[in-house]
User: What shape does this take?
Amino acid sequence: RYTFFPGEPRWPKNRRDLTYAFDPSNPLTDEVKSVFARAFGRWSDVTELNFTHSESFKTSDITIGFYTGDHGDGEPFDGVLGTLAHAFSPPSGKFHLDAEENWVVSGDLNSFLSVTAAVDLESVAVHEIGHLLGLGHSSVEESIMYPTITTGKRKVDLTNDDVEGIQYLY
Ligand code: TQI
Ligand code: ZN
Ligand code: ZN
Assistant: This one.
């Protein structure tokens, strides 16, 4: 079953339109940006929340960046596999990804076969956005918020458990 962070933090009721921006110090392709847009869409589809891309990193609700090793928040990344990404509970909005992962951006499952330790970006993004919105980990193995994922696997569809958890919060 779904869980929340202690105290059930969530974005306030008057904040249903949230902006997200990418750290301009590591420019991303439109293809990568569209993966995040799709991942946000999976959550906005089942809630009253709307997510809009903003060019202003400083003033956005949610900020996304790829970093290597120690990047200043006391939670260093560790190279290939191990920690892939982390996101903090509301209203932090910080979403960091380990730049050293072999991120797979295309939805083409065959691309996994040729990439060692491939990690599907959309799967991780959907999971981390769950954390950004206030979901903790779930005990339901098929859920997006289950705490482990198989390398080279793609898991992007919300389960009933994920939907019930997010609809309790919003
Ligand atoms: N990062 C962990 C995670 O997002 C960080 C973390 C550990 C965490 N404990 C937490 C975050 C408690 C919030 C609350 O779960 S990770 C997966 C999964 C990771 C793991 O790099 O290990 C995904 C990132 F679920 F597949 F294992 C994304 Cl999808
Ligand atoms: Zn970080
Ligand atoms: Zn998690």
Q: What stands out?
A: The domain at 17-68+75-162 is CATH 3.40.390.10 (Collagenase (Catalytic Domain)). Strands lie at 17-22, 50-53, 62-67, 85-87, 94-98, 102-104, 118-120.
